[in-house]
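pipeline/complex-builder :: batch 7 item 3
reading input block
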Amino acid sequence: MDEPALIQEAQRGDLDSFNTLVLNYQDILFNTALRIMGDQDAAADATQEAFISAFRAIKSFRGGSFKAWLMRTVTNACYDELRRQKRRPTTPLEPETDDGEEMENPRWLADPSMSPEEEVEADDLEHAIQHCLDELPTEFRAVVVLTDIQGMDYKEVASAVRVPLGTIKSRLARARLRMRECLQGFWELLPTAFRLEEESLRT
Amino acid sequence: MTQTPSFRDVEKLSAYLDGQLKPSEIARLESRLQTETQLASVLKDLRQARGLLRQLPQRRAPRNFTLTPKMVGQKPPLPRTYPVFRFATVLATLLLFFTFATNFMAPRMTQIAAPYPYGIGGSGGGGGDEEPALQMESAPAEEPAPAEAAEPALEEEAPAAEEPAAPELLAPEPTQMPPAAEDSARAAPTVAPSEKSGVQIVPTTEAYAQQTAPEGAEQAQPVKPPIGTTVQIVLAAVAILSGLIALILRYTAIRKWRAKAK
């Protein structure tokens, strides 16, 4: 069944059709939540909340990009969760190393198919980028995640975060500049990544 | 040229990277990029930042986020007949309790009403509701000779109640149970010298009713319950059957719904 038909069925209250849509979009939504939240468990919670909210509000979907509409629900769920965390700050329970100390790098997120060297490199890169993303104000973070990580165009992002197109351009420019400044502090950690970037510039 | 780019320039460079500028703006910016080294440096920074963000690996969802009916508060669609059976169960049960209550209360109501007719017959006097109360009040004053006081009371009050009461009921009364005895039975502590008159005082009205019963034995038989057992059985059967049907309907609907959800 194609997407519009599934959406129509879901609007009639058919949970099976909606669950088919969930399976199609769950990775994108989870990744978006993961980059905005910076924590896997919180991202999973936000994703689940987003799908529940989406099912309840699906009758209000009036066409257009369903992906952008879903991104709006997940962004809102992330904002809600971040606000809740701000009100009641908690100490995250991160995985421990063999020495019993908290693991600073999010190695537990790594793809098991990578080689150890790639894994270390990806860990460092991912950790550094996630750290810099966490440093951004939430509204900047959402825009940069949707545009640069999820590859959405400006119109879709504007629809997802409900701000004018001009604001998207402005927030994205600021976010990219801040990311660049922040990542300069990790230059030694990210030689390969930057080398690749430099090479791609030359070609 | 070493002019520091403004934030507006940075915005344009960012949009240029994403192909969001108009052709005329692109041409103007590209010509500036060739001459302004700072502008070109900022473009390089923005491109690097964007490139790094794009390199972030896409993670797979740690689990499926599919929804269950419970998560979204969905309930199984019950058959249209279900509320009818449920209502029938409740109604039949309530009516059944009502019949039990009525049957339980009916004999009691008869017993409460019973002492007055017996009293009227026994004393042969008064018959009104106020009569015993008046005698109770006067009893302590007549303490020295309660039995004597009973006689005038009988003589005076008998004519008033004579019309409904049979004469043979009145005749033996003074020796068996004077009218004051009923009062004295209620006000027992003040009626001590009753032995003088040879009258046996019965402490309760029930016992008194038993003593005076022989003549009115037919009247004292247990009262037939106003609601028959058949009605109660039918109501109980309706309650049980409709309840069972409602339960089966509900169970079947939930089972089908869960099977469909799986």
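note: Chain A has two domains: 1-88, 113-203.
queue -> next item
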